[in-house]
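Lab notebook, design round three. We kept the backbone fixed and only want residue identities now. Task for the bench partner: fill in a sequence for the structure below.
Input structure tokens:
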């Protein structure tokens, strides 16, 4: 848990995990705020951020021009929301990438929650479904504002 601010551009070589993988319960959940602070959070061959069950990530950019650039993975290149996990996007930009299956920018697993208040998601493609955003069954996607453009998917 906590509030984190980027102070420079970052390129990750393994996905950043929000939550605890050893025990997927409410008791081990975390609530994290990530402020891009005008910087880029990127990856080449891994997804950027993975939110575990019952954990929550609030994504914002207090300066402007902050960006998460997804890597090439099987699914959810920039943001992956596991079941019962949540992401609230307040602003910033997610640039999606080409995925082997689904969700070039954001993939929300069964029962996850994605709320987009503002910001932009663009440029994603997927071999199967959800070029920019893919919501699996029983998930919730609420778009209160922002823009999603340019996604391409086979289905």
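Proposed sequence:
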């Amino acid at each position: 848990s906590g509030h984190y601010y980027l102070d420079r551009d970052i390129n990750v070589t393994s996905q950043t995990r929000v939550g605890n993988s050893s025990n997927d319960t409410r008791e081990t959940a975390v609530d994290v705020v990530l402020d891009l602070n005008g910087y880029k959070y990127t990856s080449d061959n891994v997804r950027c951020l993975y939110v575990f069950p019952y954990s929550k990530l609030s994504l914002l950019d207090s300066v402007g021009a902050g960006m998460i650039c997804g890597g090439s993975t099987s699914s959810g290149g920039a943001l992956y929301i596991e079941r019962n996990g949540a992401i609230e996007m307040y602003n910033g930009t997610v640039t999606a990438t080409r995925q082997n299956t689904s969700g070039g920018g954001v993939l929300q697993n069964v029962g996850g929650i994605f709320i987009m208040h503002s910001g932009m998601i663009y440029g994603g493609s997927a071999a199967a479904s959800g070029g920019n955003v893919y919501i699996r069954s029983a998930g919730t996607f609420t778009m209160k504002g922002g823009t999603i453009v340019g996604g391409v998917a086979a289905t």
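Keep this in mind before ordering anything: The longest strand covers residues 31-35.
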